[in-house]
Design brief:
Elements: H1 2-11, H2 21-64, H3 66-74, H4 79-120, H5 130-146, H6 148-156, H7 159-163
Helix pairs in contact: 2-4, 2-6, 4-5, 4-6
């Protein structure tokens, strides 16, 4: 090992540069590892923002249809029927959104890897792994659980006060 460092210092001049490939690869892997952590945090934060946006949209939509649901209640629909209808609607939005998002994410990763592969000559392949599937499934499950909130808001509403 001391002889290797001697060669490195001998060939590191103003006209040439000697380096150990392992050192460069180690530095590259550390940068890529840091990027992976940052991208994972960004994915979680963006998923939380998407949940909040979906929740706000569903609540706003349910406020628009509040009068129609109150009319259904006045005509004899049970509170549970209204709750289940709103919950199924919000759950369907979240579940379909998770599937579409997984497909669009794969498509974007495939397109990006193709562009990088063509421009740099490095072979990159985009795949959907278990981690991505679990993240989408967790997101859909969390969204389905959160779908009870707008359903509960309409469930608690008074028919008489809404129809006034």
């Amino acid at each position: 090992i001391p002889a290797l460092y001697g060669l490195r210092s001998e060939y590191s001049t103003d006209r040439s540069m000697a380096f150990f490939p392992a050192e460069v690869l180690l530095q590259l892997y550390s940068y890529l590892g840091n990027i992976r952590v940052v991208m994972s945090v960004m994915a979680v934060v963006s998923e939380i923002l998407v949940f909040l946006a979906i929740f706000a949209g569903v609540v706003a939509l349910m406020k628009l249809f509040e009068r129609q649901f109150a009319v259904l209640r006045a005509l004899g629909a049970s509170r549970m029927y209204i709750f289940v209808a709103v919950w199924l609607f919000a759950s369907a939005i979240v579940a379909v959104g998770a599937l579409i998002g997984l497909g669009l994410g794969y498509g974007a990763a495939w397109l990006g890897s193709s562009i990088i592969s063509n421009s740099s000559g490095m072979s990159l392949s985009a795949t959907i792994g278990a981690q991505e599937v679990w993240l989408a499934a967790f997101g859909a499950l969390a969204g389905i659980v959160l779908a009870t909130l707008p359903a509960a808001l309409l469930y608690r509403g008074s028919v008489a006060s809404i129809l006034r």
